[in-house]
Amino acid sequence: MSLSYETCLRLFKKAILNRRLPSAILLSSSSSSLLVNLGRELSRELLGTDPTKHPDFYVVKPQSKLKRISVQQVKDVCRDLYLRPYRESRKVCLLLEAESMCLGGGEAANAFLKTLEEPPLNTTIILTSTRPMALFPTLLSRCLRVSVRNRPFEISPEERELWPEVQKWLEPDSDPEREKLKKIALLHDFLLRAKTPLEPGKEEKGPGEKESQEALSAETHEKREKFLRLVELAYWHKIQEELEKGSPPKSCLSFIDEIRTIERLNQDLSYGMDENLAIEAAFLCPQRIKSNNS
């Protein structure tokens, strides 16, 4: 069960007051901006001031072209966390997009594991993730996991650029089978354009070509996740609108089926299934979804 932003913050404040907050917390949601805001609010409560101006507040986030948290970043912050605090008696580490530690063999995640197992005294580590299932089980087992529910249809300016694509997706079709094929074609077209951002003749060659391709793959992966998240949000928004109008819950079943399809697609992709196969399986094999929920 997921909790609202406000409920999470209220419970965290109570835990801080009663000194019962665990040393490691994993915040998960489909909205990365919501997680950043909640992580900073929680850090503010722990430190008693604006965390961005506090010397004992540490932020770790993907910085390389491959959008990973590197082993060196992890080693640096772990070293600092074991030092004596500059002010007060508490340190806070906010580690954003924690799932990126598990990329490239997961060396960064393994380097961070010891700190989670034996955290420094009076230190709180806050991890955020939009894909918690991509984290290693050894990391998950050492954190208090909190799923945060999105605020109603909250999207960032960057995500608004994708909204025209989402609107095409939401256009209904009188023929259900034709609508499925249309969505498959739209998704394939979107991903094809996301994979070819370089101008003709600008492709990188030489030793850096492999790294460039990996960076492009990571960027495509991020665009795909944002697009699917927006589609899912749009369906939840439609459900909310129908219920507010007093429509019977049965009128929302088609939207729920669409959300389950997106969830199934995301799950298959997270398991490393071929992208084309995962898309066609999600939209052309609905019985797989029903069997999982029976």
Automatic annotation (TrEMBL):
Gene3D superfamilies: P-loop containing nucleotide triphosphate hydrolases. The gene is holB. Residues 197-221 are annotated as: Disordered. Residues 200-221 have a biased composition (Basic and acidic residues). It comes from the Bacteria. This is ATPase involved in DNA replication HolB. InterPro entries: P-loop_NTPase. Signal peptide: none annotated.
